[in-house]
Amino acid sequence: MTPTTQLSIPNAVGINGLPSPQAAAASIQTGNLTISPDGATLYTNAPNGLEAISTQSLMVTNSAPNLSVGAFAVTPDSQYIYASVSTGVDIISAASLTVTGSIPSSIPPGMPIFVDY
Q: Would the pLDDT of 79 be above 50?
């Protein structure tokens, strides 16, 4: 997918010259943020849905309009996002930002979600 949104974050430099997730969080002002284990992608629950943002360019590289989730975490291999939803937990492909599975529950999980395997 072609990048569509440029985030303007002055002085947003973090470790090894990578953009600072804290600065990005303050600038885009969204509810949930998490960074992939490899540090390449910042995922955010933006007002219009789940988005993936490159930490190198600070541009939105993928988005899933209308995919609204609660707390979420990226798996250690950066392949999936486990996200709290009203019906349990959705398993989302990090590459395509599409739901690939779900774990139903009558009680949604609390925050935060931690993925360990």
A: yes
Q: What is the pTM of this model?
A: 0.67
User: Rounded to an integer, what distance in angstroms lies between the CA atom of residue 76 and that of residue 61?
Assistant: 20
Question: What is the Cβ-side half-sphere exposure of residue 67, based on CA atoms within 13 angstroms?
Answer: 27
In the chain, the domains with their CATH numbers are 15-104 (2.40.10.480)
User: Which distant-in-sequence residues (6+ apart) come within 8 Å of 6 by Cβ?
Assistant: 57, 58, 59
Greatest alpha-carbon pair distance for the chain in Å reads 44
Q: CA-to-CA distance for 87 and 107, rounded, in angstroms?
A: 7
